[in-house]
Write a structure and sequence with these properties.
heterodimer; A: Butyryl-CoA Dehydrogenase, subunit A, domain 3; 2 domains; 3-stranded antiparallel β-sheet; 9 helices; 7 strands; B: alpha+beta; 4-stranded antiparallel β-sheet; two-stranded antiparallel sheet; 7 helices; 56% helix; elongated; membrane (chain A); PqiA-like (chain A); Paraquat-inducible protein A (chain A); transmembrane helix (chain A)
């Protein structure tokens, strides 16, 4: 396994394939690929705990946002409540029902799934236990789902829709609307805090030898490291 | 700092999911379990297949109505562009512009950008790899935002159901447009951006 241990000290930029020796940046700094400027490593203090807290909050908020009324309009004695799930399912029957499935996934199910997966993956790591059996496929799935989880886009869509409706009828916001807004902010913070490389490093079947790791942390460098 | 070597030149294959490297020929990443390929040779055909599917959906998305609004007196259907123009005329230029940018400028720009990237990889290009990488990152980041118009339709449909006073229903263009966005996202994801950098690697070798 000597050869594999050496390879564990290398990192390849996933965007341009440039090869580097791993040299951990200091807390709050970033290791950037010298060729294409992608961020490779971005360690944050107690990031794991923070992400778990956020993920738990996201899960609660998603369930809450589905449960409570979202928006309400009224005009000329008629009024109508819309829930989040009702919005997602509003395309009704026929071929447009496909859209209902897609929208439900994008704004309700995928954000919830990602939050639960992150708790499952990071929970044991934060408490210094061995990773769970399915932690690696779970994190891979969570990463693959990331572009399809579209809460923040839906939020901007709300803003546009509200302007469209404003001159048609009276509007009022339900609790779910505010929950969903909080959810969007939390998701953005979470994605900024999550350092993929650190998570994969923690999920490594055979972690780096401790003395090398210490040396790596002591080395102050904002770049990813020296070209290999 | 001298230019870095690529993993392929070092006889290694890199995992694009977790950035671990393995000896060339390794099938699966031992850390994250992803399938490993040094350069995905079929990447370009998948890019073009999704690209074409996306383009084919984008045409009906602009021809059919996106929204059908019925009020007491009249019924009116709007296409994507029509709806945005109406917003601007109603004195809401900012949301109108958001919709116009998200559903017209971004999709068309994306079709052009992906085609340019795919062609430049095959033919070789004088454009700076760094600039092309930049274009690719913008395409990947911004593509999802086109979905906003579909969400607007969903919200309006769920909300505006006031019996005879006013009601809004989705049109067939909503489905076509959503498919177009999904297909172009898949097209961008299928592109192996490491190929952008191969030309300079080969030139130096």
């Amino acid at each position: 396994m000597a050869e594999h241990d050496d390879l564990a000290q290398l990192i390849a930029c996933p965007h341009c394939d440039a090869l580097y020796h791993v040299r951990l940046p200091e807390e709050g700094e970033r290791a950037v690929c010298g060729r294409c400027h992608s961020v490779l490593i971005r360690p944050r203090k107690r990031a794991g705990m923070r992400i778990i807290m956020i993920a738990a909050a996201v899960a609660v908020l998603v369930v809450g946002a589905v449960w409570f009324p979202f928006l309400r309009i009224s005009r000329a004695g008629f009024s109508n409540d819309a829930t989040l799930l009702g919005t997602a399912l509003s395309f009704g029957t026929g071929p447009l029902a496909l859209l209902s499935v897609a929208v439900t996934l994008m704004i309700v199910l995928l954000p919830l799934t990602r939050a639960l997966l992150l708790i499952y993956v990071l929970g044991p790591i934060v408490f210094d236990r061995a990773p769970r059996v399915l932690a690696r496929p779970a994190f891979r799935l969570s990463e693959a789902l990331r572009p399809w989880s579209m809460g923040e886009i839906f939020a901007l869509g709300c803003a546009v829709a509200l302007v469209k409706v404003a001159d048609l009828a009276q509007l009022s916001f339900g609790p779910a609307f505010w929950m969903f807004s909080a959810l969007v902010v939390l998701t953005v913070v979470q994605d900024r805090t999550l350092d993929r490389w650190s998570v994969w490093q923690a999920l490594e079947p055979q972690p780096l030898p401790p003395q090398d790791h210490a040396a790596a942390i002591a080395d102050p460098a904002s770049r990813a490291g020296t070209p290999a | 700092m001298s230019a870095p070597r690529s993993a392929r030149e070092a006889g290694l294959v890199a995992c694009t999911r977790c950035s671990r490297v393995w000896p060339m020929g390794t099938e699966r990443c031992g850390r994250c379990g992803s399938h490993l390929v040094s350069r995905d040779s079929r990447s370009l055909s998948r890019v073009w297949a999704w690209w074409l599917a996306g383009l084919m959906c984008y045409i009906p998305a602009n021809m059919y109505p996106m929204l059908v609004t019925s009020t007491l007196m009249s019924s009116q259907s709007n296409t994507i562009v029509g709806g945005a123009i109406e917003l601007v005329e109603h004195g809401a230029p900012v949301p109108g512009l958001i919709v116009l940018v998200a559903s017209v400028c971004i999709p068309i720009g994306k079709f052009i950008a992906i085609a340019w990237l795919a062609l430049s990889v095959r033919r070789g290009s004088r454009a700076q790899p760094r600039r092309r990488q930049h274009v690719y990152e913008i395409v990947e980041y911004i593509g999802r935002w086109s979905m906003i118009d579909v969400f607007v339709v969903a919200i309006l449909t769920a909300l505006v159901q006031l019996n005879v006073v006013a009601s809004i229903h989705p049109g067939p263009a909503a489905l076509a447009f959503a498919l177009s966005v999904i297909f172009t996202m898949l097209s961008a994801q299928a592109f192996d951006s490491r190929m952008i950098w191969d030309r300079i690697d080969e030139a130096r070798a």
